[in-house]
Amino acid sequence: MDWLLLIALVVLLIIAGAGVFALYRFAVKIKREFQGHLPALRITNMSAMNAGEVVTLTPVVENVGGGVAHDCIVQLAGWEGSFAVKSIYPNGPRYQRHSVPMVLGPHAPIRMKVMSRCSLRIAYRDRWEQRYECWYPVTQIKNVKTSLYDIQIQLSEPELTEPHPSIREMWTLLRGTHADD
Fold first, then answer.
1. Whether the Cβ atoms of residue 115 and residue 109 lie closer than 8 Å to each other
2. Which of 2, 49, 71, 122 could form a disulfide with 56 if both were Cys (CB 3.0 to 4.6 A apart)?
3. Measured between alpha carbons, how far is 135 from 159 in angstroms, rounded to an integer?
4. Where are the alpha helices (DSSP H) in 36-145?
5. What is the rounded distance in angstroms from the CA atom of residue 98 to the CA atom of residue 29?
6. pLDDT of residue 146
7. Do the domain assignments include residue 173?
8. 106 lies in the same domain as 54
9. d(CA 102, CA 96)
């Protein structure tokens, strides 16, 4: 009788282990498929031009992810302008880089005074209307010749704000996605 109980316990453990492994593989597959549909807007290049007291920063925004980014906005604290585009596509036939010229004259707030929290922000949504933000820290450096502040943008380590849906939410969103989206 003890052998029968031991064999039943081993069989139950094998079945439970196989079930956990299958569930883990399903979750990994859903997560990979979901991440393949997500956009990722990043600044891939930055140029700066100094002409007298006017500084022009031109970041190049690209979609390095796998999905289309919608309602895209690029803003710089202390810059009166903003850049908006309806959709930015990933690598493929509709792929495009977007250059965003930011003209900062001597009267731009970011050049006149020290700002407590200064950053370059990229905000966008994915196909399911989830919000994403990418923040690049900006450093203001006092120019001794002009008494204005020069701008440096740190591109190496952006701060990301993105949603973290559960595996069940990912599966639900993917199940409602059409193949042509």
1. yes
2. 49
3. 5
4. 109-112
5. 33
6. 83
7. no
8. yes
9. 19
25 & 76 share domain: no
pTM for this one? Answer: 0.84
Average pLDDT over residues 92-120: 90
Question: Is the residue at 172 inside a domain?
Answer: no
Distance of CA 37 to the CA centre of its chain: 13
**Tokens linked to 180:** 């042509």
Report the chain's mean pLDDT, rounded to a whole number: 90
26 shares its domain with 108: no
What whole-number distance in Å separates Cα of residue 74 and Cα of residue 85?
9
**167-175 vs 2-35: helix axis angle to the nearest 10?**
60
Q: 73 and 23 in one domain? A: no
Query: For tokens 């949603």, what's the residue?
Result: 163
Give residue 24's pLDDT: 94
Instruction: Flag the least confident range among 63-72, 124-133, 161-170, 172-181.
Output: 172-181
Count of the separate structural domains present in the chain: 2
Task: Report which secondary-structure segment, H or E, holds 7.
Answer: helix 2-35
Q: Which residues contact 93 (CB under 8 A, 6 or more apart)?
A: none
| Residue 178, in any domain of the structure | no
